[in-house]
Amino acid sequence: MGVRKICVVTGARSEFGLLHWLLKEIDNASGLRLQLIATGMHLSPEFGLTWKTIESEGFHIDKKVEMLMSSDTPGGISKSIALGVIGFSDAFEELRPDLLVILGDRFEIFSAAVAAISPRIPVAHIHGGETTEGCIDEALRHSITKISHLHFTAAEVYKKRVIQLGENPKQVFNVGSLGIDNINKIPLLDRDSFEKSIKFKLGNRNLLITYHPVTLEVRTCVEQVRTLLKVLDSIPDTHFIITKPNADTDGRKIIKLIDNFVKERPDKSAAFVSLGQLRYLSALQFVDGVVGNSSSGIIEAPSFKIGTINIGDRQKGRLRCNSIIDCGNEEDDIRRAVSKLYSHEFKSGLKTLRNPYGKGGAAKKICDIIKTFSLKNLVKKSFYDIDITEVPKQ
């Protein structure tokens, strides 16, 4: 068997952080050649030109696929998807990978998956089988599953769901979450170094805020963020570290609200386009909890034995442990959730917390499989039926 060209696509800072150790594994593996494509927000000055971060960490970017429109309206996102399919088609024709590796459910990743269909490039998908009922990513994720040929899930329940979607069990692997690898492998900053890195002093109480647009709800996102910021402003003696949203529908409107909030409260709040994995995980050591609707509050935060206030339906359906406080979008709902987060009873329960997303090692498991799994005829898929006892008459 010759050298396999493994093409990995990254379109957002958060997803690159999850892919970091897998990229290292592939790059260092004999018999594999890493090809890396940067796209989406990595190439946008508005979102920090984070392709520079990728290169600063020692990775070579083989291709850059420009696809983001200046608009974050639903029409603008649809046009970005179309541009992405065109750009990835050109990139794949030049790189000719033996296997495409993609993570998650963002629209940039969907474009890459679609572009891989016609040239018959086998696709390996990470973090499939999950559900986020309040987000358009739900449809994109399951569509990517049906396009893909190898599947690496973060939990057993997700593995079962991928198989339920008609995927062959022999090609579905529960490896745990890549985010746990970061927690285990990255030497985190101490408090003083962390404060210097973000140029912001922590308070007696601190919360990490990460809120993204709820893309299946119409004209509610801005009001939801206004409500959240109003509640935050009323919490006494508390500092806030706020991460800005991705290039989703209405993302720019949320960013404007956050910027205004921080501008008026510079002593108690700071906002960042990208904290990066080191600073983000380091922050989880020092905050009392995570507030918002990001998957990081559900997947990574439990490993630090801190609580998460999960607002609204964006993460509805995702596997969670008892450190997650689900609440509605109304002001009173969020206030009650904050009170629970700081209650003695709730904090006592965090001491014995176990993260349901594994203990780490996902990157090596994935690399070992893509190195040895036969790619011959992999693109010829049969629908795997389960428990079909009677076929309806035509």
Structural class: alpha/beta
Return the CATH topology of the largest domain.
Rossmann fold
What's the CATH superfamily of the largest domain, by name?
Glycogen Phosphorylase B
Largest sheet: 7 strands, parallel
From the alpha carbons, calculate the radius of gyration and give it in angstroms: 21 Å
Number of helices: 15
What order do the helices and strands follow? EHEHEHEHEHEHEHHEHEHEHEHEEHHH
Mean pLDDT: 90
Indicate the percent of residues in helices. Answer: 40-55%
**Unreliable sequence segments:** none
Shape: globular
Q: Which CATH class of the largest domain applies here?
A: Alpha Beta
What is the end-to-end distance? Answer: 47 Å
Just name the CATH architecture of the largest domain.
3-Layer(aba) Sandwich
Give the domain tally. Answer: 2
- Oligomer state equals single chain
Strand percentage, roughly? 15-25%
Quick overview of this protein structure:
With 394 residues, the protein is α/β, with parallel strands linked by helices. It contains 15 helices and 13 strands. The strands form 2 sheets. It has a 7-stranded parallel sheet, sandwiched between helices. Strands 10-9-8-11-12-13 form a 6-stranded parallel sheet, with helices on both faces.
